[in-house]
Specification:
The protein is of the alpha+beta class. It contains seven helices and 20 strands. The chain has two domains: 57 residues, no CATH class; 206 residues, Fumarylacetoacetase-like, C-terminal domain (Fumarylacetoacetate hydrolase, domain 2), CATH 3.90.850.10. The strands form four sheets. Strands 7-6-18-11-12-14-8 form a seven-stranded mixed β-sheet. Strands 1, 2, 3, 4, 5 and 15 form a six-stranded antiparallel β-sheet that branches. The chain has a five-stranded mixed β-sheet with strand order 9-20-19-16-17, with no helix packed on it. The termini are far apart.
């Protein structure tokens, strides 16, 4: 099953059609996407057997984030082996977790404002929780996931890395529009192997990142078990699982985004397209 949000209303995407959840369920579910994640077991059971009827043409370009306002967003640093190597840092012995702020969430298409001179790209597979998770075991972790969506964790490296010795990951990665999610949430059963999802990023037609979640140092199951052992993961919460090698920061010298750059990101068969634009701060 695939879930999208268009015009602030949750939709079930079925092939080339989109069906309004609230209309199809006669008000039982939706239209708010978060309400679906809060009732995920009941909703997914209904959706799997309901006669949904015809939909309207689905336009991925019209999609907003499939999780418009997650209560908690977790980023994971240095979680791909090749990225850890290019960073010149030792492999983490525990997940490196930071928070991102909800005001940074935006949809999968449109302009990306370059608020600083050192904005970097980081394509990621993001998991969205469908059940409250507390002290979850690795073996049960995927059963708490509603689905996977594409993500771009844009990062202002100059803000992220200051002051020296005390980095500000949460601030550097939380400018408006720097957590891009979508176009759709894809349930785990749609993947041949949810622990081996291809992802890539191109800038101006040049492939800069290409990998698979099979290269994660800490798997999705390990991340959910680790974080849920510290605090509750709530329905609709998002975990950005990390980025592969090929970021601008790892280049010598770094080559950060400039106005006019075209960024295309893929996770599985999901595609995001962004155009970098200059900051018009007044």
């Amino acid at each position: 099953m695939r879930i999208a949000v268009i015009d602030s209303r949750a939709k079930i995407v079925r092939g080339a059609e989109a069906l309004d959840v609230a209309e199809a369920s006669r008000g039982r579910f939706g239209p708010d996407a978060l309400s679906l994640y809060e009732q995920w077991d009941a909703f997914s059971s209904w959706a799997s057997s309901a006669d949904l009827g015809p939909g309207v043409p689905f336009d991925p370009e019209a999609c907003q984030s499939p999780v418009p306002a997650p209560r908690q967003i977790f980023g994971i640093g240095l979680n791909y082996r090749a990225h850890q190597i290019e960073s010149g840092l030792p492999a983490p012995v525990e997940p490196l977790v930071f928070a991102k702020f909800v005001s940074s969430v935006a949809g999968p298409t449109g302009d990306l404002v370059l608020f600083t001179e050192e904005v970097d790209w980081e394509v990621e597979a993001a998991v969205v929780m469908g059940r409250e998770a507390r002290f979850v075991t690795e073996s049960d972790a995927w059963s708490y996931v509603a689905g996977v969506t594409a993500a771009q964790d844009y990062s202002a490296r100059d803000v992220q890395m200051r002051p020296a010795g005390t980095p500000q990951f949460s601030l550097g990665k939380s400018f408006p529009g720097y957590t891009r999610l979508g176009p759709v949430l894809v349930t785990p059963d749609e993947f041949d192997d949810p622990d081996d999802i291809a992802l890539s990023c191109s800038v101006n037609g040049v492939l800069v990142q290409s990998s698979s979640t099979a290269d994660l140092i800490f798997s999705v199951s390990q991340l959910i078990a680790y974080v849920s052992g510290i605090l509750p993961l709530l329905p609709g919460d998002v975990i950005l699982t990390g980025t592969p090698s090929g970021v601008a920061l790892g280049m010598k010298p770094p080559k950060y985004l400039r106005p006019g750059d075209q960024i295309v990101s893929t996770v599985g068969d999901q595609v995001q397209r962004h155009t970098a634009v200059a900051n018009q701060r007044i």
